[in-house]
Amino acid sequence: MVKSRSTKTKKPAKKPAAKKAVSAGAKLKIALVGFGTVGRSVAKILCQDTNGPLLLTHICNRRIKKKKDASLPKHIRWTENFDDVLASDADVVVELIGGLQPAGDWVRKALRVGKSVVTANKLLISEAGPELLDLARKMGKRLEFGASVAGGIPAIIGIQEGLAGDRLYKIAGILNGTCNFILTKMEKDGTSFDAALKEAQALGYAEANPSADVDGLDARAKLVILIQAGLRLRVRSEQILCRSISSIAAVDFMYASSLDSTIRQISLAQKETNKTVRLAAAVQPALIPAASLMAHAQGSQNIVTATGEFGGKTMFSGYGAGGDPTAVAVISDLYAIARSTGASAEALPGTAEVPDSVSGDFTVPHYLRFIVRDRPGIVAALATILAKYDISIDALLQKPGFPHSALSFVMTLEACDSAVLNRALEEIGRLDFHVEPPLCLPIFLD
Amino acid sequence: MVKSRSTKTKKPAKKPAAKKAVSAGAKLKIALVGFGTVGRSVAKILCQDTNGPLLLTHICNRRIKKKKDASLPKHIRWTENFDDVLASDADVVVELIGGLQPAGDWVRKALRVGKSVVTANKLLISEAGPELLDLARKMGKRLEFGASVAGGIPAIIGIQEGLAGDRLYKIAGILNGTCNFILTKMEKDGTSFDAALKEAQALGYAEANPSADVDGLDARAKLVILIQAGLRLRVRSEQILCRSISSIAAVDFMYASSLDSTIRQISLAQKETNKTVRLAAAVQPALIPAASLMAHAQGSQNIVTATGEFGGKTMFSGYGAGGDPTAVAVISDLYAIARSTGASAEALPGTAEVPDSVSGDFTVPHYLRFIVRDRPGIVAALATILAKYDISIDALLQKPGFPHSALSFVMTLEACDSAVLNRALEEIGRLDFHVEPPLCLPIFLD
Fold this sequence. Notes:
Two copies of one chain form a homodimer. By secondary structure, the first copy, chain A, is an alpha/beta fold. The first copy, chain A, is built from 17 helices and 17 strands. Chain A has helices at residues 2-8, 19-26, 37-48, 64-67, 82-87, 103-112, 122-139, 155-162, 177-189, 193-202, 211-214, 217-231, 250-258, 293-296, 323-339, 378-388, 418-429, and strands at 28-33, 54-60, 77-79, 92-95, 116-119, 143-144, 168-174, 241-242, 261-273, 277-289, 301-308, 312-319, 357-359, 363-372, 393-397, 407-417, 434-442. In chain A, the strands form three sheets. In chain A, strands 7, 8, 9, 10, 11, 12 and 13 form a seven-stranded mixed β-sheet that branches. Mean pLDDT of chain A is 90; it is low at 1-25 and 342-350. At the A-B interface, helix 8, strand 12 and helix 15 of A face helix 8, strand 12 and helix 15 of B. Strand 12 of chain A pairs antiparallel with strand 12 of chain B, so a sheet runs across the interface.
């Protein structure tokens, strides 16, 4: 910590014996932009530790009259105007307003006037991470975003620095706490997706418009950041397949349980380097073994696994969201800046390759669930089409008690390329006995 | 990476266009000291990546004629004499010989002549970590030891930097792969400790003298390092209670299973700050829930959890030993040095506090297993003593089929201070019906 004093203090204090001047000069001055749940946690924790190298000096938010927290120290300057932050003596801007705009412009402006930036903004980093890191590097400042993925779990530093010596080829995770809450709820209580979603909304875990969570967009932004950090590949969010968990029904958990499995929203990216660099990546509901570590993540917990050529599979898990855990990630980033000489921005190198191809196809076993008007010959019709595409059926499961008018049954398939299976499913979808479109889920065994 | 070139190259290359000079000047030159399993993995991985910032230049080991690996590049200089390494132009010494001496002297010498050091030596770091870090800092060099705990799992960087923003008060883990192999083997196959140990020895997982592993000394050294890194407390190994797993019998797994639990060697440290700073820490076999994440660690896997005031519990798991995973940790440390300006040694601050007290006492439920010559009044005698110490019995379990001459049964106790329980057990131990001394295990529920 002592080291950073000399680099942070523009001029040596005239009276080094004067206690106030020295300790103020030693501290990293922090402007908090966005005073919601995470912002409030960051402020609370920063103001509890007055001996450390971090000093909260500014808070910027709309309607500060309403937001102003009288319990925070008097020296903090409150403002509604981001220009005040830019003009201030703050060393670091903590951006917690989220979304692409104005957050993106503000982060760029802060870097351009010579401030380091810490952000929890997954959308912004997944969209513009490499560009912003280039800008930070050019300005001799730091951009840190440990809080943008998996909240309090140190997945980015763990993967990017802790596993720097490995050659990672696979990243998998449960990256969205809302989906995990909904799916573990459905699993435990046997409720429908709609009922579990409503409960998540009532508890504040899900938004009124839950699309970003349940359709996979939130997890996708995080996966893009992990792909850059761990696989060193640069992809755009829209290149990554997303499938909604909203098509999962209570009956799927019954069948999954018969298969000693459960269902989770899994974010998965796999890199294959041969002559070309190919990336397979998707965010989707999938069957995973009930005894697996992934299945262990309950409620809003997150989990990230990284698999490398040398170190095998390493796992990080913990609380992926919430004010305090996310604040821990933000403050850990602030400490990293305080420790550094302030001149580097090494995290997430801008030199990540662009893969030659990106697909959502994995060669894995699959789970197919049908709801049909029962009549003779249905299985034969399905088997004929699957055989045409060289896809082998592994097992056929049918729970008793369904009406003939909406009979549900499940086929599991041996490992096959999901692109080939999708073509078979298109053909299967045209058969006339479906009451609902068939549901197809990959089965991830490890 | 480019940044470090200017700081590493003492003089600018005279012909910057000459490819060889430039690329050689850009690299961090590495001397490997100790060419065993981990050393060979480090050499293999370093020599596969010729474009990176790391260049293996020296290998030092005894009997190099026998050890010399002809597949490694010709430019590597082999030596049996550590003084050659000290006199060389290597920037970093990777110490992989293990043990306190001569490793300690060599690390000190390397730092004193201005080389950074990477080590996997848990004994040395647990014994002399703060002193060596002070020396590194004084010399403007780095000392990194990510490989000293939990092999390939980035637990130290994850806890020390990734969770820097939290206030950690608890560290727990499965830190010894040999014990975990033996105990998971006993659990699965119902074998005795001796049989499982013999298998571990046959497979090369356990040493001929297994004491360091099974008696907890290996895990204790790692726990000391994690206590320093995460709880910021400075303790000596001998202050930490160790209990051997050799007293665990096959029957204990039977009883544990009836309690939906299993048995693992658990390293646990808990910090309590009130007016004084108290540390409770121990390495011992313990009952843990069969459904817990800890119980999930199979065979030689390791797991580390860190619990903080703000971020809750965060978990790291993966392969804690073996050549390649440990090499990943070593090489990740080398990358960290390559990225840095080489002037800081921030990890594991020497400023960690010395706790006011260190004990091995936890207030938790306990498992007591007795093997007795059966006769009336045994339970009454035990219950009377326990009641005297205000300890409540939770349940009494007795599997059928034991002979009267060596009847085994189990008591579980409600949460009580293990120091108080130990006094009760001393008294209980003096009763005359024991065939074997009673076994007491803590039950860790979370």
